[in-house]
Amino acid sequence: RALLMTSSARWICGFLALFCASPTRGDSSFAPQEYSVRPGPDVQYRLQDRLIQAVPGDVIQLEAGRYDMRRQLDVVSANITIRGRGSDKTILSFKHQDTGGQGIEAKGDNLVLEGFAVEDTAGNAIKVLGAKNVTFRDVRTEWTGEASPTNGAYGIYPVQCQNVLIENCGAIGASDAGLYVGQCKYVIVRNSKAERNVAGIEIENTIGADVYGNLATNNA
């Protein structure tokens, strides 16, 4: 009986060793990392691929320059940061967009978006849906041409979210609202600018919103 128990124990230990050797998110190769992405050929696919492969804790560093985006970017991972070198230095241009209803659409919790611009999207610029703990910092959304009903409806657009911070951001040229917060709980919008939109700042069906220190000019 002792021999059988020893054999069983060895089999279990061997199975566990094999299982633990298989790649998982706990493996060091899957540990959170910072990835640098630069403008250039195939940047659409390189950036979307990096977003698909992101694991919680990853930082995606968008280097300075203009990124030619042709399709909507989708963010589904939780607890990631997408960071540019500044909203006047890192620019995602969707001027030639041919696929997707937004520029960026995100759903993951604990999301930080900072230091970049999204320009000339076919629809909304940045939509975050149903997420908790969302930060927009030094993010600019803009339609660079003349005011037009064909511009996207919303610039920065969190909806059905909880614990949202929008600070030092800018929204320009939206055909509806530049900074729009809808059906959210516990929101701060501060030190941001909205200009040449139909509505500059719109807070709708939201509980616990603190909106201060903002500048809204030349909105309809």
* Share in β-strands: over 45%
Largest sheet: 13 strands, parallel
Q: Any idea what the shape is?
A: globular
Gyration radius (Cα, Å) is 21 Å
Helical residues, percent: 10-25%
Number of helical runs? 2
Alpha-beta content class: mainly beta
Instruction: Report how far the terminal alpha carbons are from each other.
Output: 85 Å
Could you give the order of the helices and strands? HEHEEEEEEEEEEEEEEEEEE
- Mean pLDDT comes to 89
The unreliable regions are: 1-28
E-strand count: 19
What do you see in this structure?
- The N terminus is likely disordered.
- The relative contact order is 0.10.
- The chain is globular.
- By secondary structure, it is mainly beta.
- Helices cover 14% and strands 47% of the residues.
- The strands form 2 sheets. Strands 1, 2, 3, 5, 6, 8, 10, 12, 13, 15, 16, 18 and 19 form a 13-stranded parallel β-sheet that branches. Strands 4-7-9-11-14-17 form a 6-stranded parallel β-sheet.
- The chain contains 2 helices and 19 strands.
Notable characteristics:
disordered N terminus, 220 residues, 13-stranded parallel β-sheet, mainly beta, 14% helix
Layout of strands and helices, then pairs:
Elements: H1 2-21, E1 34-37, H2 43-53, E2 59-62, E3 65-68, E4 71-75, E5 81-83, E6 90-93, E7 99-106, E8 111-119, E9 124-129, E10 132-142, E11 154-159, E12 162-167, E13 170-172, E14 177-182, E15 185-190, E16 193-195, E17 199-204, E18 207-212, E19 215-217
Parallel strand pairs: 1-2, 2-5, 3-6, 4-7, 5-8, 6-8, 7-9, 8-10, 9-11, 10-12, 10-13, 11-14, 12-15, 13-16, 14-17, 15-18, 16-19
